[in-house]
Amino acid sequence: MEDTEKIVEEAAAEAQSAQSSRALYEVKMKFLGRTGKLTALLKNMKEIAAELRPAFGKRVNAVRERLEELFAAREEHVKARELAEKLASEQVDVTMPAKRQRRGALHPITKTREELCDIFSGMGFEVFEGPEIESEYYNLTALNIPADHPARDMQDTFYITEKFLLRSQTSAGQIRLMEKKKPPIKMLSPGRVFRADDDATHAPMFHQMEGLVVDRGITLGDLQGMLDEFARTMFAETAKTRLRPSYFPFTEPSVEVDVSCTACGGKGCALCKGTGWIEVLGAGMVNRKVLENCGIDPDEYTGFAFGMGIDRIAMLKYGIRHIRSFTENDVRFLEQFRD
Ligand SMILES: [Zn+2]
Question: What's the 260 CA to ligand 1 centre distance in angstroms?
Answer without folding.
Answer: 8
